Amino acid sequence: LFSAVQMAPRDPIFGLNDQFTQDANPNKVNLGVGVYLTDEGKLPLLECVRLAEQAMLESPQARNYLPMDGIAAYDAAVKALVFGAQSDVVTSGRVATVQSLGGTGGLKIGADFLHQLNPGAKALVSNPTWANHNAIFKNAGFEVGSYTYYDAAGRKVDFDGMLADLRAAAPGTVVVLHACCHNPTGYDLTAAQWDRVVDLVREKQLVAFLDMAYQGFGQGIKEDATAIEKFTASGLSFFVSTSFSKSFSLYGERVGAVSVVTQDKSETERVLSQLKITVRTNYSNPPTHGASIVASVLQNTELRALWEKELGEMRIRIQSMRHALVAGLTAAGVTQDMSFITTQAGMFSYSGLSKDQMVRLRSEFGVYGTDSGRMCVAALNTHNVGYVAKAIAAVL
Ligand code: LMR
């Protein structure tokens, strides 16, 4: 049965985790996967999460099947966070939200539904993009292409190139956009650029699918939702996937959602019914624990304030590590201008290092980033940043 099965290629991100675990180098640093670690190099258990779990333990509940679209209070909390509780799309019933297995699950449920709706449509992802975008949309049945996004020489968004590629797309094309903290480049669109993208999506009758996995890690919770606000104000129908892996440090709980903004309540009901079938035929219904935590925190005034504070602290620490890395590179003798590291947003720095340099970083220094040159600066700390800077300086 399995004699012809080929070995699958190693996952470009999680494959590195395996390699990192096996590396005997005592100085090793994992800047591969997008995971936030504290200054002590530990995965944080947020205090808001601990308090919500404590309250759950004090009043334990039996676990029945959840509805296919998940916990109602959670879906309501996601809508309020992503679109604003008082926003017209929410109060008029124009959003269908379904709890999903992380942001990846939200992308997959949305992609499956979109492909059933329009099997001939193509999907376009940014070049470069998160390695899994291509595979998710391909596995959902789409032919996947890309639109220009990054100007490597200018270290910025190639906005003209992006507009030209979107302008050339056929009507119905699904365009996957990073709502904030672009993964891997860390370069986001300005508010004015989002206006132009929204106009083009409308003019060319494209379908926007916004991936928002890092809300709160760029400029702030509200600021990072600029793209969502623009699309919401446009009156267009669009998709948003949400992840709480990073913002609640709940990676292993797989807490996410997909939200579909429709034209009216009747469309929402019909879309929701289809999303539920997609969930049912993939994994039936989602798990309880992580979404219960997130719903409790988002709906409780004190826990919500604590979450915002803790998320703000993570954001600020990442910024300080960006500055420390640039200072460390200068101290290690790097003369080229590396200040771009401090202007990129989110968990990653797109370093511009080649694949060969990234391989050398791994094999000679135990410093792990992806082959594309992406490094998770959220895993730097005051103890390892000097070492990482010296390693980068050595391979530059
Ligand atoms: C990443 O980009 O490293 C994270 O989003 C983790 C993942 O699922 O790839």
TrEMBL record:
One Gene Ontology term from the biological process aspect of the record: L-phenylalanine biosynthetic process from chorismate via phenylpyruvate
Keyword Transferase: yes
Domain Aminotransferase class I/classII large: 27-392
Enzyme class: transferase
Recorded GO CC terms: cytosol
The EC number(s) this enzyme carries: 2.6.1.-
InterPro entries with a match to the protein in the record: Aminotransferase_I/II_large, Asp_trans, NHTrfase_class1_PyrdxlP-BS, PyrdxlP-dep_Trfase, PyrdxlP-dep_Trfase_major, PyrdxlP-dep_Trfase_small
Domain of life: Bacteria
Family as reported in the entry's similarity comment: Belongs to the class-I pyridoxal-phosphate-dependent aminotransferase family.
The protein's name: Aminotransferase
